Write the C-alpha cells for this entry.
Amino acid sequence: MNGFRKNKGIIIELTSLLDIIMIMLFWVMLNVSNNAQDIEKKAQEKIDEANAKTVQAQQDAQEQIDKIREENKATELAAKNMQDALDGFSSGMMVSVEMRYSGGKDVIYVSRNNSEPTAVEVNDKLNEELSKALDSYGLTKDSIILAAFMYDGDKVLYRDVNKVLDTLGKIKGNYKNIYFTQINTTKQKGEN
C-alpha cells in the first residue's frame, strides 16, 4: 500500500466554478430570450408586410373592377346611342350630303331627315361650310350621325368628289360617331 497515498488534506473549492457556470447559464438564457424576441419581431414585420401587400392587392383589384364597370357603362351607353341612331335611320333620320352639278359648278346639298337642304359650294372653305351645315341641324360632337354622300359620277367632277371625300374624312375628326357611306348614283341608273 505504499504506492497509493491518500491525500486527505487537499480540499478543492468549487464555489467559484459554480459562480462562473451560473453566470454563463444566465448569459445563455438572456441571449436565447433576446434571439426569440428578435425572431418574433421579424416574424411580426413579415406578417405586417404581407398584410400591407394584401390590402394593396385588394385596393388594386377594386380599382380594376371599378374601371371595368365604368368601361362597361361607357360601352352600354355607346351601344344605346348606336341603337338609337339605327332606329332613327330606320325611320328616315339621316344626314344626306348630295353633290350635283349646277350652274357650271359642283354644289353640295346637305339635309337631315329630308328637311330643306343647305347648299354648300365646293371651294377652299368646304370644311368650314360642311361643318356649319351639320351644326345647323343641332348635331353635337357626341351625336351619332349616319350620313350618305351621294353623287352622279357622270355629271360631277372627279376631283371635286375626291375633295369632298377628303373633307368628310377631316370632318370625322370633329365628331366622335359619324359614319359616312358613299353612293355613286350612276351605277344605280345603269342597273334600272
User: Anything to note?
Assistant: Residues 15-90 form the longest helix (76 residues).
